[in-house]
């Protein structure tokens, strides 16, 4: 689906993600000056009434429960082609899955998250609903005045508890769903969600999802030093025999809370060790509120490669860069010479080592980006010739962006360098980028450009 301009009064900014049944867009409510997420039923399901019913049922459940631990639905409407959409809370900090990918969580933080996820599922159970698809990517994170807020989301498979004996098809995500969920016609109850909570707990604690059932390796064997009570609780939640699991989400959550509050809980790993960021650079990064980060999975042909969204609010510029490059984030970076001559202000540099960005001996990998007001013909590299040879020039048209890319597949024998000057169709503002990478990956350069957004 190409990016629409608006859904009703909600102005679309960019796509946040898509799944089998729906696409989610970031939009702006200009009337209330507030960002929202808009979930739209996918075009290929537009005429499937059972899927439409499931979609609207999700909106009804979220609206009726109206909990601080669940994504809120503010509005529901229908597009001219008959597809429904719902206007929801925008979770600006991504998902728990994104958080796990960044590295091991301190135990106290993992238990806090697990407690709040459990509270959200408890609300659903009290409402008479089974979630059936609890997993880290379905738990979102939002900034709030009191800190990070957990929001349980994606109730596309949710069903009323009193209909549990009537399920005719398997539903859920392998690795997180209970054994009984994989059996069509299985008699489910809230303990299926308890199994999923156990799987999420296992991954929060160890960084890895549990094995296929029966799960025999306790989290403490992967992460030594855990309280025995935590190992016992997680393994009991993951029991194949549901009679051995905690009775419901509240029981599970209460036990997690008790473990978290115990005076002998192992000390959390210091945050500066977890993120392994040089201490002398921390202050500048924390002070730069213009940088917004949210890691997301990207399919770029390289297993395990993730992208991190970075933003420079002074320009309204956002784009995704490989997370492994994003060791330093610098806003207000001096504009490259030719970009500066064309009227560009300071830009954003995301790199493995900012001081080595221009080095011909041991270059850093990363992305530099800035905005040039108006339409300009920029040279191949605004910092001069970085690679001492002629570049390969190609025209780019992603649908959202068009312009010129100059590639140096081998730059000084130890890296690849690309520069680009692109603009959105009909827009005068030009985005100038430089991308330095260890191998020649024009597809990655194009992907970075395609993720860019202005506004």
From TrEMBL:
Residues 379-398 are annotated as: Disordered. Its EC number is 2.7.11.1. It comes from the Bacteria. Residues 10-272 form the Protein kinase domain. It is an enzyme of class 2 (transferase). The keyword Magnesium does not apply. InterPro entries: Kinase-like_dom_sf (IPR011009), Prot_kinase_dom (IPR000719), Protein_kinase_ATP_BS (IPR017441). This is non-specific serine/threonine protein kinase.
């Amino acid at each position: 689906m190409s990016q629409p301009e608006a859904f009703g009064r909600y102005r679309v900014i960019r796509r946040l993600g898509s799944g089998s049944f729906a696409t989610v867009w970031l939009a702006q409510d200009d009337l209330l000056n507030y960002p929202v997420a808009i979930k739209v039923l996918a075009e290929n399901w537009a005429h499937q009434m059972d899927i439409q019913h499931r979609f609207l049922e999700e909106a009804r459940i979220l609206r009726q429960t109206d909990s601080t631990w669940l994504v809120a639905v503010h509005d529901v409407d229908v597009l001219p082609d008959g597809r429904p959409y719902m206007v929801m809370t925008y979770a600006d900090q991504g998902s728990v899955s994104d958080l796990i990918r960044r590295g091991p969580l301190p135990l106290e933080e993992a238990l806090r998250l697990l407690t709040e996820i459990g509270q959200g599922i408890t609300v659903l159970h009290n409402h008479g609903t089974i979630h059936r698809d609890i997993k880290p990517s379905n738990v979102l994170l939002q900034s709030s005045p009191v800190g990070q807020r957990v929001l349980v989301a994606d109730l596309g498979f949710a069903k009323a508890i009193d209909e549990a004996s009537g399920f005719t098809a398997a539903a859920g995500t392998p690795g997180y769903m209970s054994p009984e969920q994989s059996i069509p016609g299985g008699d489910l109850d809230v303990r299926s969600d308890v199994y999923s909570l156990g799987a999420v707990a296992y991954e929060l604690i160890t960084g890895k999802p549990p094995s296929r059932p029966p799960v025999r390796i306790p989290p403490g064997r992967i992460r030594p030093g855990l309280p025995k009570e935590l190992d016992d609780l997680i393994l009991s939640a993951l029991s194949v025999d549901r009679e051995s699991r905690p009775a419901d989400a509240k029981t599970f959550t209460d036990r997690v809370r008790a473990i978290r509050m115990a005076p002998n809980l192992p000390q959390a790993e210091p945050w500066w060790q977890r993120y392994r960021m040089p201490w002398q650079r921390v202050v500048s990064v924390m002070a730069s509120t213009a940088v917004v980060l949210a890691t997301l999975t990207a399919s770029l042909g390289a297993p395990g490669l993730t992208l991190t969204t970075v933003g420079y609010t002074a320009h309204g510029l956002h784009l995704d860069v490989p997370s492994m490059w994003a060791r330093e984030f610098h806003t207000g970076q001096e504009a490259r010479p030719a970009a500066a001559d064309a009227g560009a202000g300071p830009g954003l540099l995301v790199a493995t080592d900012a001081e080595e960005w221009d080095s011909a001996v041991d270059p850093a990998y990363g992305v530099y980006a800035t905005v040039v007001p108006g339409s300009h013909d920029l040279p191949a590299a605004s910092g001069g010739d970085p690679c001492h040879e002629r570049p390969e020039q190609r025209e780019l048209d992603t649908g959202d962006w068009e312009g010129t890319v100059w590639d140096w597949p081998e730059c000084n024998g130890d890296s690849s360098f690309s520069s680009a000057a692109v603009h959105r169709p009909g827009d005068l503002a030009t985005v100038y980028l430089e991308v330095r990478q260890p191998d020649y990956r024009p597809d990655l350069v194009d992907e970075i450009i395609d993720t860019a957004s202005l506004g």
